[in-house]
Design brief:
Two copies of one chain form a homodimer. Chain A contains eight helices and nine strands. Chain A is α/β, with parallel strands linked by helices. The structure holds a DNA duplex.
DNA sequence: TAGATTGTTAATCGATTAACAATC
DNA sequence: TAGATTGTTAATCGATTAACAATC
């Protein structure tokens, strides 16, 4: 509600640790030291320790951490051991890609239905997920107590669609439209900014060439 | 090459300013004050001024900034007034979504060809972009002096594909696979982390409920 | 015990915010 | 001129890094 006790940068690093640790586990490695993780992932070793401590991981001096324990702790901390049901609005190419993208359920969210205002899209399934007409959103979201929404509509429709979603009880919105949404302060918005990410890449490229 | 002179957070905010300013311009507004932008975008007004100064924008006391000047300055600063040619590898659903996504050219990159190792996909077009067999990547990338690559293959194939791309002259890699790539230090990697973004959203949601 | 590794407390660094001077 | 807004210099704050104590 107020300032989150966990620093955002820590939260950003944990999934990387998780991904690396999963690889170790798949390779059958049982133990790992913070120093080794730091080395491979390009993070300061003290940072790794702090982050792991935040996630509630305890290691043992001399032997390090058990890979399985780390994975379990991070999973629990990020709530990746359970999942919330989510509704997606905007079954265009980006929405379709997300519906087909494997692993969201493992990452805490399960997309249980998609919506689109194009009647031609409604009634089909994309992957395993049914696509419904947008009119059904409000009623279903309320009945199913959905609190997570994913917004993949064109920029021009983003604000109005977000308003509809919030009015239907959505409290957390994953926004893929390149628009700053104006929503009540109790709604949590996470913007996935494709253009920003691309801009960063290109800017760093031109900085490095000069 | 060394530390970029422009703070990353500034670079992240500039596209948001740009998007907001475009809206103002479309609405026919000619001038805007930093304080007003700060208010609407939820950024401290001093921050807005600092960011705009970084991007080379000059305003006039009392009257503020001209919207058109701000847009032009940010465009130039982010290199959004020109574009680099880019190759995309991995024409799955995510790759397809990017190929159909409007506006990358405006944001500095034009995807001129896509590649996939599935022969069934080669030979078609997705949107306006031809899809070619992966074997052709190296030769074409070198001949066309492509330096920007977009990686949308499954995680298991990401490292090997990235190696191939770098060996063919790619110097900047926009990576959508949830994998930490191990590449030569001269290669610039920008990871677009879907799972991390989702994790942040869900974590903030659970923090706010408790 | 000695050595390695953890976890914590202190110092540094960079970004944000506050205070203020400049100017149209 | 007075007022509004800019741009800059100083203070704060938080994250990162460094130093060190704890422990298996």
């Amino acid at each position: 509600m107020t300032t989150p006790s966990v620093p955002i940068p820590t939260l950003r690093r944990l999934p990387r640790y998780y991904q690396y640790l999963s690889g170790l586990r798949a390779a059958g490695q049982e133990r790992v030291s913070a120093a080794h993780m730091a080395e491979v992932l390009g993070v300061h070793h003290t940072q790794v320790r702090k982050d792991l401590t935040m996630a509630g991981c305890l290691g043992r001096p001399k032997t390090g951490h058990r890979v399985a324990d780390l994975i379990a702790a991070i999973e629990g901390f990020l709530h990746w051991d359970s999942h919330s049901d989510a509704f997606l609005v905007g079954a265009g190419s980006l929405g379709t890609a997300l519906l087909k993208y494997p692993g969201f359920e493992k990452a805490g969210a399960r997309i249980v239905a998609a919506f689109d205002n194009d009647p031609a899209k409604a009634g089909h399934r994309i992957g395993d997920t049914p696509v419904l007409p947008l009119e059904k959103f409000a009623n279903l979201a309320e009945r199913m107590h959905i609190s997570v929404g994913i917004l993949t509509v064109p920029p021009a429709a983003a604000q109005a669609t977000a308003d509809l979603m919030v009015a239907s009880g959505i409290r957390a919105l994953w926004n893929f439209a390149p628009v700053t949404l104006d929503l009540p302060s109790h709604v949590i918005v996470e913007n996935l900014e494709l253009f920003t990410s691309l801009a960063l890449l290109l800017r760093r490229l031109s900085d490095s060439s000069s």
